[in-house]
Amino acid sequence: MPFGKESYKSPETLGFLNSQQALADFAVLIRSLKQNLSSEGSPVVVFGGSYGGMLAAWFRLKYPHVAIGALASSAPILQFDDITPWSSFYDAVSQDFKDASLNCYEVIKGSWAELEAMSAKEGGLAEVSRTFRTCKDIKSVYSAQDWLWSAFVYTAMVNYPTKANFMMPLPAYPVEEMCKIIDRFPHGATNVSRAFAAASLYYNYSGTEKCFDLENATDAHGLHGWDWQACTEMVMPLTCSNESMFPPSPFEYKEFSDQCMRKYGVMPRPHWITTEFGGSRIEQVLKRSASNIIFSNGMQDPWSRGSVLKNISASIVALVTKKGAHHVDFRFATKEDPDWLIEQRRQEVEIIQKWIQDYNADLKQ
């Protein structure tokens, strides 16, 4: 953080939090390291997952003289403008739950209206607070809605084949585990109580939480930095269709930009990313202008829908796994890793080794 604790204080200091600055910082760092380590001729490959995956792909496009290749895992570089259908993200989250159990999907889909009806009654918010075992009574039903929403979205993202603690400590295939919780409820239980029990797996798998703080939760993962980027350059329009298990919702640019103005005093630049890095007609553009990028994606990950899922050329390759989740290839290896994940990583290593061999062969010429 360039201004220490003051870095998040104002648009003037936050202005340095943008993708072009990040790429330039990496370029300066890599050149400096190579100088200091007397390794000017060493090849460099960049790796990134999620936003970092986007940076890795863009770094290879912008600084081909600094990095010989990039592994971009779960990198939604096509989630801008209207390149990818706006509803694809939440449709994919919903599909994960539907694949685990149709009943589970329908219970979650039915819980939102039920939650709203519960809160609208006299003493409704107190009842919602009791149902959600909140530490303090909540002031708005949207706090409960957001709490459920986040649990289901993040669990779909990190639906890993082995137990992990990336966002929260979770068991292997946590979407299936959530759906088992919902499906085990006796007939006649409310949708809201089932949805709460399922979401509790995300927030309390360890079983140590006595109550839940829905309105003053800490930002353990520093996600408020992403809020700034979404309000400036990372404008990814996401909507919920009727097929989704979430309440249908549109993307209203004016409403979004008004929120950003109120929160940060800035207006979003909705088309800047595609102006700076491209995205439209990605196959034709990259086939002629780029090389040595691996786009790896797992179809359990809702962000995969905004990434590159087909090979573009012999050296711009898409590795897609049916059961993979958010940059699962970057998780550390475990004895429980399934064969498809071991094979995906083997392919990645093989491709990168070839880049390095080609680079070294060119040096000798």
TrEMBL record:
GO function terms (MF aspect): dipeptidyl-peptidase activity; serine-type exopeptidase activity
Highest taxon, organism lineage: Eukaryota
Could you confirm whether the keyword Secreted appears in this record? Answer: no
Q: Which GO terms describe its biological process?
A: proteolysis
Q: Which UniProt keywords apply?
A: Glycoprotein, Hydrolase, Protease, Signal
Q: Which InterPro entries match?
A: AB_hydrolase_fold, Peptidase_S28, Ser_carbopepase_S28_SKS
The UniProt entry's sequence similarity note says: Belongs to the peptidase S28 family.
Q: What is the name listed in the Swiss-Prot or TrEMBL entry for this protein?
A: Lysosomal Pro-X carboxypeptidase
